[in-house]
Design brief:
Distance between the termini: 40 Å
InterPro entries: TM_pro_TauE-like (IPR002781), TSUP (IPR052017)
Radius of gyration: 17 Å
Family: Belongs to the 4-toluene sulfonate uptake permease (TSUP) (TC 2.A.102) family.
Organism: Pelagerythrobacter marensis
Subcellular location: Cell membrane
Largest sheet: none
Number of domains: 1
Shape: globular
Oligomer: single chain
Keywords: Cell membrane, Membrane, Transmembrane, Transmembrane helix, Transport
Order of helices and strands: HHHHHHHHHHH
Number of helices: 11
Strand content: under 5%
Helix content: over 70%
């Protein structure tokens, strides 16, 4: 499809804002996916192009956090590989089946995460000692990575919640390592969708530049302001993603609620 200059300018602006938000709390796809659909991209091209721009944005966040010593590459090398392999498998399945089979379950999980962040009193920047086995971290990374490759919305929030609640990381460290896992799963999904021809390269690359600039700003803001800014945004993005998914009349949960109320 052909995009006008106005359409491209719109997508670039949205990608910048999404990159900033994604680096802080995840959920940037809440903005970029509807924007791509609004300019007429097909659902498959929307997912593929979004993976292209978000991969560059997340990579920028990873580099920014790494330069500040926030990422333990030795501990998270294997989980990153697990996320990569899981995402590749999920993206391959995406090219074969309809991803809407998950759309009814995800809003429930996102609301649960929003409640967790709102009620948890000791959400802080310091890591806690938790006796979770390393194999469990690999399993979480692979499962969430598979979801990210197959469907996507909320994957960053799932990574962050697991790292805080199950593995005891402080909020900032959890977000930093989420970006590493998210980059790995995004890259795998992008490679599969590129091979399937489901990426708009020109629009995606222009959006990627804007996403990188936004991610740089967001990562620095996270390290500067800490949990004061992060907790509200985590809650807002979880609820925003939920509202976005439920706004689709085709969503199974929306249909169920509509039928029940009717």
């Amino acid at each position: 499809m052909e995009l006008t200059v106005e359409m491209i300018g719109f997508l670039v602006a949205v990608a910048f804002v999404a990159g900033t938000i994604d680096a802080i709390a995840g959920g940037g796809g809440l903005l970029t996916l509807p924007a791509l659909l609004a300019v007429g991209a097909s659902p498959a091209a929307t997912i593929g192009t979004n993976k292209l721009q978000s991969t560059f944005g997340v990579a920028t966040a990873v580099l920014t956090f790494a330069r500040k010593g926030r990422i333990d590459f030795r501990r998270f090398a294997k989980p990153a590989l697990a996320a990569f392999l899981g995402s590749a498998a999920g993206a391959f399945v995406l090219t074969r089946v309809d991803p809407t089979i998950l759309s009814g379950l995800i809003p429930v999980l996102l609301v649960a995460m929003a409640i967790y962040y709102a009620l948890k009193p000791n959400l802080g920047d310091e890591d806690r000692h938790v006796r979770a086995r390393p194999i469990l971290l690999l399993a979480f990374a692979a499962v969430i990575g598979c979801y990210d490759g197959f469907f996507g919305p909320g994957a960053g929030s799932f990574y962050t919640t697991a790292l805080i609640a199950v593995f005891g990381l402080g909020t900032i460290n959890a977000i930093a390592h989420t970006k590493l896992l998210n980059f790995s799963s995004n890259l795998a999904s992008l490679m599969v969708l590129l091979a399937a021809g489901e990426v708009m390269l020109v629009a995606g690359l222009l959006m990627a530049v804007a996403s990188m600039a936004g991610a740089f700003l967001g990562a620095h803001s996270t390290m500067r302001f800490g949990t004061r800014a992060v907790r509200p945004l985590l809650i807002i993005m979880c609820l925003g993603l939920t509202a976005n998914l439920l706004s689709d009349p085709a969503n199974p949960l929306t249909a169920l609620i509509t039928n029940w109320l009717g």
